[in-house]
Amino acid sequence: MSIFRAYDIRGEYPKDINEGIAKTIGSAFARFAGNDKNYNPAVFVARDARLSSPYLSEKFIEGCQLAGTNVFDLGMIPRTVACFYAWKSQGYLAYITASHLPKEWNGIKFFTPEGIGFLEKQNMEIKRLYSQETNPSKRQGTVTAIEKRPVEQYTNLMLFKSQPKKKLKIVTDAGNGVADIVLKDLLKKAGHSVTSLNSKPDGNFPNRKVDPNEDSLKLLRDAVIEKEADLGLAFDGDADRLTVVDDKGRKLSADHLAYILLKEIYKTKKGPAIANVECSYVIDEISKQFNEKVIRVPVGDTHLIFGVNEHKGIFGIEKSGHCCIPSLVPFDDAIATAYFLSCILEEKVSDSVKTIPSFFFNRINIPCTDDLKAKIMDSIKKDVLKKFGAEKTSAIDGIRINFDNSWVLIRQSNTSPFIRITIESKTKEDLQKLEEDFTKLVNKHII
């Protein structure tokens, strides 16, 4: 399997990705960035806390230098802070990470000077340049290490943009990733009382899974209850995904978080909310209250930010925990979202959740090998279109079928060997029937 994916580069270290490969990719990235004369001729490089990240970063930078490109090395900082600094400097960014994947994995994600992740077309151009044989540049690029400045500038911007309505007791769980390099001090400077769990970056991720899902949040939930905290905040390895725990230790869905945030944002901003095709009716319900609409986009944080920019959205949300609040920064930023949430809360999160409409939701993962996913999805789409017709379906990402009181989305995972069925319904009976019917439909094409 190629390490060049639709939205990034990733694989197991050192089997799939290693120092030699990183060096060659660095040269390709530098040549790609150098072809765009509209922006900073230097490139920016940063990394997460994985054990292999310093070695991959060092060789990646060396590859950039050999291509004759100057490099600003931002070191180990959250991905969103690196995006912020490269955006302010109008330069391309490469971030060494495998995000929420296990510790054995690593990779590289690229960003435009606008802070937007590369789309598949751009990543395939990097792959093409990677495969070319080139001679080193006659002029070797320089490396400038920048450590404290990005964190300081980012922190100052957040404090300038928003201040808390109420001082809170907050528990953070960085998962031994990089979130607390920024978040802990930011929250304290805003006046909150902060307890930090798994704060120290450690590429072994010894205390919980990298991905802050339901199974890995026990420490955070217990700490929120024990300390009678107002809020719990958990992050993945590179701190670009946020998971929120309320004052009763319950995990909020991304849709419930969006409802709380949008309720506040709509008080001062006008415009659509942008949500991927997996997101809930919940977002439509709060938007209707303010006579605004929801625009659906394909799954993937890059598509989300393109959607926010294209439609002048005031907010963007991904089911996976990526959020964008353009009034803070014009790209997805989990730390900015967490900070904004801490600023707008006046009542208990558990009380806010009580006002959110309730729907029945489930996601089913059906195993399907990576080499067959696309072919099988094409077959499923034809079957669904024939059965339900074009009026009830949308194919912007996978195939979504819209019923009167429910919807079903079938799409292939971009990162795992699955075809996923996502279902939401206003009744439990409809949910169960749709689960049965569409599991049979998908399996019919796989078997």
Write the layout of secondary structure elements.
Elements: E1 9-12, H1 19-34, E2 43-47, H2 53-66, E3 71-76, H3 79-88, E4 92-96, E5 105-111, H4 120-131, E6 143-145, H5 148-161, E7 169-173, H6 183-189, E8 193-197, H7 218-226, E9 231-235, E10 242-245, H8 254-265, E11 273-276, H9 281-289, E12 294-297, H10 301-310, E13 315-317, E14 323-324, H11 334-344, H12 349-354, E15 360-367, H13 370-388, E16 393-394, E17 399-402, E18 406-412, E19 418-425, H14 428-446
Parallel strand pairs: 2-3, 2-4, 3-6, 7-8, 7-9, 11-12, 11-13
Antiparallel strand pairs: 1-5, 4-5, 9-10, 13-14, 15-19, 16-17, 17-18, 18-19
Helix pairs in contact: 1-2, 1-4, 3-5, 8-9
CATH topology of the largest domain: Alpha-D-Glucose-1,6-Bisphosphate, Chain A, domain 3
Helix content: 25-40%
Q: What is the helix tally?
A: 14
**Shape estimate:** globular
Task: Give the quaternary arrangement of the chains.
Answer: single chain
CATH-level-4 superfamily name of the largest domain? Alpha-D-Glucose-1,6-Bisphosphate, subunit A, domain 3
Strand order of the largest sheet: 1-5-4-2-3-6
The number of domains is: 3
Task: Count the E strands.
Answer: 19
Q: Architecture of the largest domain, CATH level 2?
A: 3-Layer(aba) Sandwich
